[in-house]
Amino acid sequence: MNKLERSLNEHIENEIVEEKERFKIENDEQAEWALRKIIESENEEERVNQFAETQIRQIENWRAKQLEKTFNDKEYFNGLLSEYLHSKRQEDKDFKSITLPSGNVGFRKKPAKWIYKDEVVLKTLEGENLNDFIKVEKKLDKRAIKKAFEVVDGKVINAETGQVIEGIEIQEQGESLNVRLNK
User: Fold this and answer.
1) Where are the chain's structural domains?
2) pTM assigned to the model
3) What is the pLDDT of residue 19?
4) Which of 8, 67, 128, 180 has a Cα-to-Cα distance from 139 of 20 to 30 A?
């Protein structure tokens, strides 16, 4: 039986035991024991994560080397094809492409690249009143909203005017257990 099977069997046995009689903490010593168990679990979690990170790094390094090799191979063969196509074009100035059983290879004109100087273009468009080409992005300042308004009976209210701010829902989150460990 391997580790994984043992772990699964232990888990199943623990599930059966938990169904019969669930442990309850009844005093400070048991609470302390539970905190130590949490610390042990966190230490194990850290060990597992470190091990996994090491494995992930090794796999990523392997992948990078393999991909670099395939990239270099593709570049090499693309270079050979480029030389071949240029020689074909020297023979025939109208030559564009060649179709072969495994694919086709040819020349394609690249579209012009537009390089923008945003501030200059904005100033020019605004000066010519061409506002259709300018985006204005509206966004809520949620931090300022929380500071400026009050919550009354689950509604957000402008305290100065008494107006309800529509579109904001308040969901109470209740309490959560907070465990701070001394490691």
Assistant:
1) 3-109
2) 0.48
3) 56
4) 128
